[in-house]
C-alpha cells in the first residue's frame, strides 16, 4: 500500500504546477530550491512515480506529475474545508454567529460557505452544531441559534426558510449485490417493500424517503438497520449488508470510484431541497444574512433567489 503523502509536499507540488518552476515554488513556500527539490524527490519515492523532469534549465512536471498535481489540488481543498469545519465546531460556545446543520449539509456544503464568509469577515467567530434535521428545527424554534440548515421535507411551523441547494437520494448497493447488475429500475412498490439500511428517525434523509413513498400511497417497511450517520450507512452498504437511499452528495465519490453502484428507481420522486431556516420573528441580518447570500451563490447550480421563501 502506498504511504500517504504529507500536506506540505502536496502543497509544494501544486505550487510547482502553478508557477511551472521549482525555484519559484520554493520561494512561494518559504524554503530554498535545494530543500524543495529534496522534498519533491522524497514525494516521488513515497508515491513510486516520477513527478518532475529535471534539466539544467529547470524542472517541469511530467505527465504523471500533472495528473497527480490535479488530484493534490482537490485534496488540499478538502483539507481547507476540514479545517474550517473544525474551527467552527471549536468556536461554538463563544460564537458571534451560531449555526446548526444536518449531517449532509455540515459535511458537504457548510465548510465552503463558512470559509467564504470568514474571508469576508476574518474576525467573525462561527459556531456549528451538527444534529439531525428535527433537532436543528427545535434549536431554531427555541431561539438557541441564528440559522439552521436542514434536509427535511416536513412543513416548518413557526419558521421561515430559504432554499440553498438541491439534492436527490440515490439507491446504492455494493458491487457484489444482486441489484448491482440489474437492468430494470426498482419501482416504488418494490422499494417500499424492501428493508433498507436507514438513518435514524428524525433525520432529513429518512423523512424524505418516507414522504416520497407515502406520496405514492405506499408505506415503507421497517428498516433493515438504523444508523446514526450517512457515513455509517454508506460503510454498511459497502460491506454488502443491503441497499440504502443516500444523498447524491454523500455517495458521489463512491460511485466514481466504483465502491458503490447506483440502482435506477422509477415511480417515486427522490429529489429534495436543502434549506436554511430561521425563526419567523427574527429575520436574518448581518453575518447571518451574508451567509445566506453566499450559500445561494455557491451551491453548485442549485441556487434560488433569496426571495423564494416559505412560511
UniProtKB/TrEMBL annotation:
| KW DNA-binding (keyword) present | yes
- Establish whether keyword Metal-binding is in the entry: no
GO terms for molecular function, please? DNA-binding transcription factor activity; transcription cis-regulatory region binding
> Which PROSITE patterns does the record match to this protein?
HTH_LYSR
Domain HTH lysR-type, by residue range, is: 5-62
Mind listing the UniProt keywords for this protein, alphabetically? DNA-binding, Transcription, Transcription regulation
Cross-referenced SUPFAM superfamilies, in alphabetical order?
Periplasmic binding protein-like II, Winged helix' DNA-binding domain
Q: Which Pfam families match?
A: HTH_1, LysR_substrate
**Family matches, as InterPro entries:** LysR_HTH_N, LysR_subst-bd, WH-like_DNA-bd_sf, WH_DNA-bd_sf
Family as reported in the entry's similarity comment: Belongs to the LysR transcriptional regulatory family.
Q: What is this protein called?
A: DNA-binding transcriptional LysR family regulator
Native organism is: Prauserella isguenensis
Amino acid at each position: 500500500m502506498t504511504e500517504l503523502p504529507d500536506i506540505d509536499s502536496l502543497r509544494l507540488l501544486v505550487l510547482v504546477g502553478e508557477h511551472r518552476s521549482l525555484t519559484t515554488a520554493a520561494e512561494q513556500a518559504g524554503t530554498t530550491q535545494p530543500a524543495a527539490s529534496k522534498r519533491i524527490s522524497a514525494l516521488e519515492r513515497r508515491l513510486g512515480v516520477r513527478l518532475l523532469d529535471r534539466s539544467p534549465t529547470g524542472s517541469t512536471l511530467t505527465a504523471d506529475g500533472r495528473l497527480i498535481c490535479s488530484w493534490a489540488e482537490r485534496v488540499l481543498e478538502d483539507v481547507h474545508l476540514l479545517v474550517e469545519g473544525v474551527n467552527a465546531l471549536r468556536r461554538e460556545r463563544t460564537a458571534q454567529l451560531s449555526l446548526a446543520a444536518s449531517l449532509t449539509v455540515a459535511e458537504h456544503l457548510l465548510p465552503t460557505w463558512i470559509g467564504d464568509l470568514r474571508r469576508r469577515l476574518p474576525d467573525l467567530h462561527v459556531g456549528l452544531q451538527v444534529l439531525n434535521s428535527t433537532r436543528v428545527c427545535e434549536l431554531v424554534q427555541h431561539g438557541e441559534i441564528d440559522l439552521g440548515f436542514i434536509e427535511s421535507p416536513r412543513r416548518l411551523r413557526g419558521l421561515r426558510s430559504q432554499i440553498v441547494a438541491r439534492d436527490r437520494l440515490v439507491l446504492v448497493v455494493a458491487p457484489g449485490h444482486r441489484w448491482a447488475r440489474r437492468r430494470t429500475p426498482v419501482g416504488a412498490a418494490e422499494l417500499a417493500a424492501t428493508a433498507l439500511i436507514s438513518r435514524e428517525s428524525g433525520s432529513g434523509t429518512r423523512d424524505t424517503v418516507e414522504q416520497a413513498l407515502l406520496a405514492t400511497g405506499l408505506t415503507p417497511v421497517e428498516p433493515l438497520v438504523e444508523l446514526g450517520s450517512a457515513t455509517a450507512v454508506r460503510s454498511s452498504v459497502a460491506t454488502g449488508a443491503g441497499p440504502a437511499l443516500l444523498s447524491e452528495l454523500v455517495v458521489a465519490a463512491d460511485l466514481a470510484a466504483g465502491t458503490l453502484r447506483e440502482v435506477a428507481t422509477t415511480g417515486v420522486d427522490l429529489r429534495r431541497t436543502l434549506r436554511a431556516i430561521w425563526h419567523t420573528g427574527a429575520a436574518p441580518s448581518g453575518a447571518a444574512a451574508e451567509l445566506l447570500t453566499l450559500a445561494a451563490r455557491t451551491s453548485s447550480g442549485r441556487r434560488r433567489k433569496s426571495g423564494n421563501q416559505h412560511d
